[in-house]
Write a structure and sequence with these properties.
The protein is built from 5 helices and 6 strands; from the N terminus they run E-H-E-H-E-H-E-E-E-H-H. It is α/β, with parallel strands linked by helices. The radius of gyration is 16 Å and the shape is globular.
């Protein structure tokens, strides 16, 4: 008997935010991943990780602001005013799992990657490790995760986050925010 049969294989998809209707493609992929997972009766929480103290790391808080301004129906943690970052992420995770019974967490964060992937957005059907690109040991978060590849990986990672173009980060944040708002319209409607 194959006991691993019902476990989803790790899958990561890439999206180019400068492509026309990229947010719709990303939104549809978010919906597909949510529907593939056991989300019945689970409250959706979007955790937008990062800080405005480093341009590249502002992706998550920008997405959080975008969702608040766009009328997102689900809970959001992490904005420019109230960021979720290395100093408070453990407390934020504890609060989420205390306040909500078995929440479905969508984690959003900036990431570092290969030069050819800079500017792309990824969607994975698994958690992410915030701060990994800058050698921080923080807890994993997310049932699914969305990242924006803001610069190339390498040392020192924190310097790379400081030298990231805000324009690119803003465009990725708008694409991710629009994709989540697009998915929101379908998730908040009865099937």
């Amino acid at each position: 008997m194959n006991l691993i049969k019902n476990v989803l294989k790790r899958r990561t998809e890439y999206f180019n935010p400068s492509k026309e209707n990229a947010y719709i493609e990303l939104g549809n992929s978010i919906l597909n991943m949510v529907y593939e997972m056991d989300t019945e009766g689970r409250e959706i929480i979007v955790v937008c990780i990062g800080t405005d103290r480093a341009t590249g790391d502002a992706l998550g808080p920008l997405v959080g602001d975008f969702l608040f301004d766009g009328g997102f129906d689900y809970s959001v943690a992490g904005t420019l005013q109230y960021p979720v970052h290395a100093l408070n992420i453990r407390e934020t995770i504890n609060n989420i799992y205390t306040e909500y019974n078995n929440p479905f967490v969508i984690a959003v964060d900036a990431s570092l990657g290969m030069t050819k992937d800079i500017g792309l957005i990824t969607l994975s059907n698994t958690h992410l490790f915030p701060g990994k690109g800058v050698n921080k040991k923080l807890p994993a978060i997310g049932d699914i995760s969305i990242t924006g590849i803001v610069n190339q990986s390498g040392k020192p990672g924190s310097a790379l986050l400081q030298n990231t173009r805000l324009y690119m980060v803003k465009n990725m944040a708008e694409c991710i925010g629009n994709a989540l708002l697009y998915a929101n319209d379908y998730l908040s409607s009865p099937l």
